Backbone:
């Protein structure tokens, strides 16, 4: 059994902003942030493009669900591939392909020739290319950042991503309301092209450029079996993944499909963009807090904070007023960000680096597999029981999933490596000097 890989040769101190001193991490941060800016606009634009085309929540669920379904199918292959070849090259290729598919969607919408079938097909292709790079983008951090500052790196990554979404979500609402959905999708295509440039400039440290020798000799099937062994041997890992399968299904159906429907009937399209931005503002605050939080049971704290996701679903279903939606979304964002940083840090700390992409792919498949199901069934369920009842039911499912994860002792008691007293003192001195 191999242990976690050694730290990259470059050192950057242990201060809160220490990861930003590493040039490869800065390029990773730039590429992912640019991509996040476009992707904050794209879901709003695509949702209202489909609603303008047919007015059917079920059609919207099929379009957004197609991307996620294909994404899940190809994730395991993407994880095995990422442990064999340079991860940043996978990210470049996927960004270029995503730019082309989004440009095709934009052209169809702007020309008035879009159909639900064409949008489903292009969404599926986009999901496939995304799956080939997603495990790589998640697993590349340990190759760029030393272990003692990875929590800060993960928090900074989330902070920049969410900052991009804060800008993108309200801009997306304005673009959709004024210029039309097609232009929002065109902007997303352009940002994929820019992110490809940033990833192309990323250079891995010499210790992390070559794939692991074992991965190079084995077959893809062997690699996947090794990743599965790593995944199932950790109770905390599969319990949280199972819980988030339920949570992601509820959120995807409620926010991606039913949310725009409620917004069209109540607060309006531009206000819906503000609600999504409010959630991201909460996520930014959560990332800032995560930069400094030092607790020994980091995963327990993250899972506990996930319970705030109940609030926006209940508000949408019961009292969809703008002020309440903004507050609920903000709290949910702050809570889920604690989980995101805790989860990334825990994975990178407890999984061997040469197998991390494969374990990430099993994590993503398990967590994401229910998303297209939630997106596809949300419309029919809402038509059968009413939008409000469907949203309240989704909130109940989230609460049950959080309770189930917290019932596991492996989740509650997993220990996080806290900085030593010497590291903490060094960090304090560096921050004071800054």
Residues:
């Amino acid at each position: 059994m191999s242990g976690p890989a050694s730290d990259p040769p470059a050192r950057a101190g242990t201060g809160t902003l220490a990861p930003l001193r590493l040039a490869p991490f800065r390029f990773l941060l730039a590429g992912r942030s640019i991509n996040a800016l476009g992707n904050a606009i794209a879901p709003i634009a695509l949702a209202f493009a489909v609603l303008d085309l047919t007015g059917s929540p079920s059609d919207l669920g099929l379009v957004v669900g197609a991307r996620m379904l294909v994404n899940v199918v190809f994730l395991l292959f993407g994880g095995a591939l990422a442990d064999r070849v340079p991860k940043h090259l996978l990210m470049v290729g996927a960004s270029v392909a995503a730019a082309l598919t989004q440009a095709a969607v934009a052209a169809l919408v702007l020309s008035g020739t879009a159909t639900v079938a064409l949008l489903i097909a292009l969404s599926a292709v986009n999901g496939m290319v995304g799956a080939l790079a997603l495990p790589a983008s998640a697993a590349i951090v340990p190759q760029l950042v030393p272990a003692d500052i990875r929590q800060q790196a993960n928090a900074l990554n989330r902070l920049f991503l969410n900052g991009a979404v804060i800008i993108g979500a309200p801009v997306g609402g304005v673009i959709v309301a004024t210029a039309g959905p097609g232009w929002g999708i065109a902007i997303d295509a352009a940002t994929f092209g820019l992110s490809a440039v940033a990833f192309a400039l990323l250079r891995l440290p010499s210790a992390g450029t070559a794939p692991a020798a074992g991965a190079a000799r084995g077959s893809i099937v062997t690699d996947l079996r090794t990743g599965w062994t790593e995944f199932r041997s950790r109770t905390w890992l599969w319990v949280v993944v199972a819980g988030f399968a339920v949570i992601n299904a509820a959120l995807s159906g409620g926010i991606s499909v039913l949310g725009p429907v409620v917004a069209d009937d109540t607060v309006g399209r531009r206000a819906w963009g503000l609600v999504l931005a409010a959630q991201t503002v909460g996520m930014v605050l959560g990332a800032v807090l995560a930069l400094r939080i030092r607790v020994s049971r980091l995963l327990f704290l993250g899972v506990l904070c996930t319970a705030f996701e109940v609030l926006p679903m209940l508000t949408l279903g019961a009292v969809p007023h703008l002020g309440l939606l903004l507050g609920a979304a903000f709290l949910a964002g702050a809570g889920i960000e604690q989980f995101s940083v805790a989860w990334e840090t825990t994975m990178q700390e407890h999984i061997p680096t040469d197998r991390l992409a494969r374990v990430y792919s099993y994590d993503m498949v398990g967590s994401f597999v229910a998303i297209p199901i939630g997106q596809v069934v949300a419309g029919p369920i809402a038509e059968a029981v009413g939008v409000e009842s469907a949203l309240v039911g989704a909130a109940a499912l989230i609460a049950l999933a959080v309770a189930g994860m917290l019932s596991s002792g492996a989740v509650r008691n997993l220990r996080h490596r806290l900085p030593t007293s010497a590291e903490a003192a060094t960090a304090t001195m560096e921050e004071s000097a800054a």
User: Anything to note?
Assistant: The chain has 19 helices and no strands.
